[in-house]
Amino acid sequence: MIGKISSQEKPIMSTIPTSVTEAQFNDDIRPHLNIAKRGYESETPLYEIFNLVLHRLHTGCQWAELPVSKDAKTREERHEPSWQTVYHHWRKWSGDGHLEKVWQASIERVKADLALSELNLDGSHALAKKGGEQVAYQARKKGKTSNILPIVDGKGYVVASTGIIAGNHNDAFQLKEHLQTAFKTLKSLGLSIAGAFFNADSAFDTREGRKVCFNHHVVPTIPENKRNRKLAKRGRKRVFNTEVYKRRLVSERSRAWVHKFRALLSRFDRKVTCFLAAHHIAFALINLRHLFAPKV
Predict the structure, then answer these.
(1) Dist CA 185 CA 161 (whole Å)
(2) How far is residue 223 CA from its own chain's centroid?
(3) By the 8 A CB rule, do 111 and 191 touch?
(4) Cβ–Cβ contacts within 10 Å for residue 177, how many?
(5) Tens digits of per-residue pLDDT, 109-144?
């Protein structure tokens, strides 16, 4: 029935993982990373290096404060990498777009569990303490911020997203282009969105955005933004499903899951590629949360 989520589409609640096992890394992450095909790779297993990256994203610590010994001899005895080694792998993986492939592969992995009858859009501003690319002053946050707009399904899986946007732009900035890219990406992954409700708050109420939704056979469930209009809007009254709109709060929960990674709550990465790649890791782990959950 339209406006209701079936029992099969109820949210799956699992703890968002902040580390992975070697088997999980080899199955769902390693195949999509840039790894040397031959020759020297690393004395430290790559899954341990990846877990140190996750530690940094989860705690928000500085790279030099990773839980590895600062003494070279001790590191050699324990087969630990230096923080510079971890940072080198992070820059390599984030700079070539492979972490985005990890996220897209996670969507493929959970395709059968997705609840695509509803798509939910919301923005997430992060204060940029050190400035950087795509950073600008946001009056509402009283500081320089970056913004990203993830799209989640009815269970909270992150299925699409914009890039990093400077904080001085409103939420509907370039919304037409962002929605076109997101919907085309979903279709390229073999996901059917025809007939889905598209939930967003009134900040996203634009003529161009609604037109994109209709062109892709998606039903916009967006409250009208009067934008200082004194008279009623002319024309046919827009369709608005109140019950469906209430369930868009699933995007708030997914945003809270993203902010579990403190390095995404406050931005210290100056390079936009690094900050975006960190979001791709968080999105992937949110999607794989029930598959990576400890077996009881």
Answers:
(1) 10
(2) 24
(3) yes
(4) 12
(5) 999 999 999 999 998 899 998 899 999 999 888 899
